[in-house]
Amino acid sequence: MNRLLKATDYILHTISTSNGGSKGLMGGDRIQATMVFESID
């Protein structure tokens, strides 16, 4: 269960970053998405 909570934190950070910047969304989104997938893996 603790691992699921950590994964949720990563997802929340990704959403915040997306809302933060528009130009960095495309570049940052890819990096953030990779981190989320690695955490789940």
Give your account of this protein's structure.
The protein has two helices and no strands. With 41 residues, it is mostly helical. It has helices spanning 2-20, 23-40. 0% of the residues are buried. The protein is 90% helix and 0% strand. The two termini are 15 Å apart. Helix 1 (2-20) packs antiparallel against helix 2.
Layout of strands and helices, then pairs:
Blueprint (H helix, E strand, L loop, with lengths): L1 H19 L2 H18 L1
Helix pairs in contact: 1-2
A few lines on this structure:
With 41 residues, the protein is an all-alpha fold. It has helices spanning 2-20, 23-40.
Instruction: Work out the helix count.
Output: 2
Helical percentage: over 70%
Estimate nothing, just give the exact number of structural domains.
1
**Quick one: biggest sheet?**
none
Rg (C-alpha, Å): 11 Å
* Low-confidence runs: none
Q: Calculate the terminal CA-CA distance, rounded to whole Å.
A: 15 Å
N-to-C SSE series? HH
Note the overall shape: flat
Structural class: mainly alpha
Q: Kindly state the mean pLDDT as a whole number? A: 58
Number of distinct beta strands: 0
Instruction: Please state roughly what percent of the residues sit in beta strands, choosing from under 5%, 5-15%, 15-25%, 25-35%, 35-45% or over 45%.
Output: under 5%
